[in-house]
Design brief:
The protein is mostly helical. The chain has helices at about 1-20, 20-45, 55-85.
């Protein structure tokens, strides 16, 4: 008899999941939106909390790839300064 009640309970769960997928998917989407908003607010206001922004760490990882462009940019700025002085 105990197996029968377990089977009935499992069937209830199965049909509840099969026919209640719209409400479950909406709740999952709402949860992910709330998480996304929380992450965005954390990135925007983390400096107010005394936490440094992680973007500076990510840009440090890009520096080896941008070395050539940064060098040419510095030379370009030097030329512009010389032209303004003349």
């Amino acid at each position: 008899m105990d197996k029968f009640f377990k089977c009935i309970a499992n069937l209830k769960l199965f049909f509840q999941g099969a026919f209640n997928h719209k409400a479950m998917s909406i709740s999952k989407i709402e949860e992910s939106l709330v998480d996304g908003v929380d992450q965005f607010l954390f990135l925007c206001f983390s400096e107010n909390l005394g936490i440094e922004l992680p973007t500076s760490y990510y840009t440090l990882e890009l520096l080896p790839y941008l070395r050539r462009r940064i060098g040419s940019l510095g030379r370009k700025n030097d030329r512009q300064k010389k032209n303004m002085e003349d």
